[in-house]
């Protein structure tokens, strides 16, 4: 699977019926730029936030992004391994 841009990923989620409030979309881009995270890591943080919280939680999302960037995590696979190892989520 090729990496989608954040915009493409959000459109994909919307096509599956998930609706983001307008402020959430802005916050997603804020977090991406604030942490200088790649699209792949940003999308993974969105995915894991939704799985853990069952809705978009901006502070949880930014916290994940910060952890991923601080630990030099660059792929979805590595991000999922990281949250499993740190027991941040039960996935």
Annotation keywords:
91 residues; 5 helices; 68% helix; globular
Question: Concise description?
Answer:
The protein has 91 residues and is mainly alpha-helical. It contains five helices and no strands. It has one domain (6-85).
Task: Outline the structure in words.
With 91 residues, the protein is an all-alpha fold. It is 68% helix and 0% strand. The chain has one domain. It is globular.
Secondary structure: helix percent:
55-70%
Outline, from the CA principal axes? globular
Tally of distinct domains: 1
Percentage of β-strand residues? under 5%
Quick one: how many beta strands? 0
State the secondary-structure class. mainly alpha
Number of H/I helices: 5
| Radius of gyration from the alpha-carbon trace, in angstroms | 12 Å
Secondary-structure map with pairings?
Layout: H1 6-15, H2 22-35, H3 39-53, H4 58-70, H5 76-85
Helix pairs in contact: 2-4, 3-4
